[in-house]
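Budget justification, computational time. The allocation requested in the original proposal was used primarily to generate structure tokens for proteins on the priority list. As evidence of use, we reproduce two of the resulting records. The first is shown immediately below.
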Amino acid sequence: MRRRTVNSMVAAILAAAALVLPTAVAQSPATAAPACAFAPTQVPASAGFAAGQTDQAFATPAPRDHIAILDGFSSISPLVRQQNLAEAVAINNTASPATARASVNDNYAIEGPAIFDALGSRLAPAFYAALRAGQLPKTAALLLGDESPAGERTGTSKEKKYFQYPRPFEVAPQLIRHYGDGRPDLYAAVRGSGSYPSGHTTWGYTQAFLIAAMLPEEGPQILARGADYGYHRVVLGVHYPLDVIGGRMLAQAVTSEMLGDPRFAGLFAQARTELRAVLQARVGAPIGAIVACQQAAQPTATALTTYRQRATFSFLPSGAAQAENVPAGAENLIRAAHPGLSTAQLRDILARTALPAGYPLDKSGLSGGWQRLDIARAWVTR
């Protein structure tokens, strides 16, 4: 299921995106103003990475697994497990037709460019046009497809096998509505595989963290899109809220490792430069000016609220006292939002914007702290 080439996967996703993108965001009245009447320029050529560069994208080996980060799941109470299922059923049963359609589309968009939908009314179409034209070879090679460096690092099979938690539609088949649109049965494809943590969610958040680091001007919107990507797994009834929260935690750890790796960071900087240059040429203005003139995917305040809601669902903190604990490397997740700040300053922002202690999956110690991070709020906090 995961072994797909970048080209075949991108072609399928772009075909779907061409149908939905024009109505995804509305044009802002500001785009009609003379100051926003940009003229596209020639797109700079990009030859892509040299042969073998993405095959050796990391200077450090991938961790064997991330079970220690996620094992707060093993100690959750029966009451929390019941709430986990009850909320999964409620979200699945009450989804609007539009949300159900979006959830089905995201199901088939695994390892694709769906998170780029959040770039706004001018940047998103420019991105998809550039991707179709083959003008983003470094961006695509680094971030898209299961064989990309990002794809290779976001697998969840070891963690799923360790926790062996059955999915909502298997535990309560009489309560879960099935959604689909004629494509291969999405429920049959995952039946019998572990529910915790969510692999789609891990992918969606990882993509969001990386894309936000490339285009920090739209950071909150991109991060909220990653949160919705995970939420859609609950809508479908193939995951529980805690699966999605665990996927976010895992994505934070994986992305911080990638951005902290010197070899990947070098390749990432090249892809970032490519993406920004191509988008600026296609629209005809610097990224900041484009953002000021376009309609955002959603207001920043809404994006921050969405992100936090998806980080906790209906769970409440237990009030258990735990020491403030910003995980090592977590500062890498917000460095692009705060250029010039020291590591200590970045970690201070993460601590000041963190969730309260005591939510399910929260834990202390060397592998703890990942549940409490609110990257979206940290993105905009000064």
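The second record produced under the same allocation is shown here.
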Amino acid sequence: MRLRYALRSVAQMLSLCSLALVIPATSQSLAATRQPDIPAWLGAYVGAGDGQIALPVLQRARALYMRKVSEGTVKNPCYFAMDATRPNTPNDGKSAGRFYIVCEAAQTFRVVSSGHGSGRDLKGVADFGNGRMCAKNFGNAMDSNLTTGGSYLTEETKTTFKGYYKLSQAKEVAYLRTFLQFDGEGETANARQRAIGGHAAAKVAGICMKKDPQSPYANRDGYVPLGKLVEYAGGRSDGCTSWSASDANQIISMVKDNPTTLYIYPESSDIKAVAKAVAAGHSPAQSGLYWNESCLKEIGTPKFWPKETLEPIIVQYKKDHPAPPARPIPICDQQ
């Protein structure tokens, strides 16, 4: 009897241990709810799937927001995060969500698309360009067109006229785009000097000059730029955070005269650690690191280009390859 009871007790203990081992592995979001600093409702959105946010990205975004709130710098009930390791445009052609809007008081979580920095290819000197889907190169050098991960604060907005475009055959509309300036700290401290911020992913392209002296935007000769409105929500930027027009309007209205925080992943330390793990033949997860798996397969090894290294290269390249004289913009066919 004693032996049978002992065997039964051991079996029950093994069953409980097996259950304890299985439960955390069944859901990454379940593990997130056990993080003491993340509310249970928000932890349900943690993961690697569509509409989810990776745990380290959320934790750092929350820590930055809480710090700025405690300092009295931020009173906005919402904060932002971006995961630049995720794909920008998945195989189905739709814009991927990797920019996060979190409002904890209202318990709302929203994911929208956002572009990454295009980088540049300085032919024969340095290639730090990025593809459309995944970002391989990151950095904080002037004129690099690269995304820089780290901490930001949203600041003032500025709206500028970009040109007219045809809304219909008979109607032309002025396109006014609002730019939301970011301020950074540490490696993102030169965000203002680099003109890094957020704006709608749209521009007026294929411009010609049309005679319209009555327009408030006419130049001294009475001409205004006229072109085609091009939207590139699934495209790349000059290093800024770009959104679709509708998302940009909502995001900018949320922070106008009421700043908040934005945390962009990855930082240079993350990039270097992942690159080291890949070089050693390890996956980031095996090394306790995070990078989106599908993008890592595409880019191979990520790289961070510090401004101390890259800026002198860009300056010298400009000296060796001066820009050609600007061509005059053609006059529109008035017929």
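A brief technical remark on that second record: The longest strand covers residues 150-166.
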